[in-house]
Amino acid sequence: MEGGVYSIEDALKLADQMELDLIEISPKAEPPVCRISDYSKFLYDQKKKQKELKAKQSKIVLKEIRFGPNTDEHDFQFKLNHARKFLEEGAKVKAYVFFKGRTIVFKERGKILLLKFVQELEDLGTLESMPKMEGKRMMIFINPKKT
User: Fold this and answer.
1) By CB distance 3.0 to 4.6 Å, which of 9, 23, 69, 98 could disulfide with 106?
2) Is 124 exposed, middle or buried (0-12, 13-18, 19+ CB in 10 A)?
3) Is residue 1 a part of any domain in this protein?
């Protein structure tokens, strides 16, 4: 069936003769654009396209690593290895220092710890923003580098 400009009645008659449906594709166009086809097949194709688009989307995984302001070197290295693994897998890493009770006076220690953490991981990831306080947490986000 070739394209053309038809009145609504003629288009409906044509669709009826072919035992198909008249589907409005873009109603805001002048004149409105319609297609004659099987509506259930049209819906099926649309769902299929949506599913393909959804499958192509990349999901961003966020992994968290928690430190205390007095984290010692062994624990730091242990958590650093975990962060390396996460970044290699393509996950985003959220590292934070949790200040409990009176440890809030060691804000500077927490900042130094996080900056050291970022420095160790600079070959695998990039820092999103400098450490910032939110309540009792000082946090940073590290994005994996694109390979």
Assistant:
1) 69
2) middle
3) no
Average pLDDT, the chain: 87
The number of C-alpha atoms within 13 Å of 52 and in the hemisphere containing its C-beta is 6
Residue 95, C-beta contacts closer than 8 angstroms, at least 6 positions apart: 64, 65, 66, 67, 79, 83, 114, 117, 139, 140, 142
Which residues lie closer than 8 Å to 67 by C-beta, 6 or more apart?
75, 76, 79, 95, 96, 97, 98, 110, 113, 114, 117
Quote the pLDDT of residue 10: 86
CB 85 within 8 A of CB 134: no
Which among 54, 71, 90 is the end of a domain? 54
pLDDT band at 1, cuts 50/70/90? low
